[in-house]
Design a protein that fits this description.
Length: 68
């Protein structure tokens, strides 16, 4: 599965979240570190859902950029 992630620049680091997995977040010092950590967070989040016998949501979020 491929989940969309959002990485935001914060004051002193980066923060990431997964729109299709509420509560699945990660922070890191660099974009690369944050991307690596959110991948780990997604795997951990999905593992926990499976262990709790919760349905794993299909990815539905789309990512587009617009020019203004």
């Amino acid at each position: 599965m491929r989940y969309a992630i959002v990485i935001e620049k914060m004051e002193s680091n980066y923060s990431a979240y997964v729109p299709d997995l509420p509560g699945c977040i990660a922070t890191g010092s660099t974009i690369e570190e944050t991307e690596s950590l959110i991948k780990e967070a997604i795997a951990f989040h999905l593992e926990g859902m499976r262990e709790d016998h919760q349905p794993v949501p299909e990815p539905t979020s789309l990512v587009e950029y617009v020019s203004i």
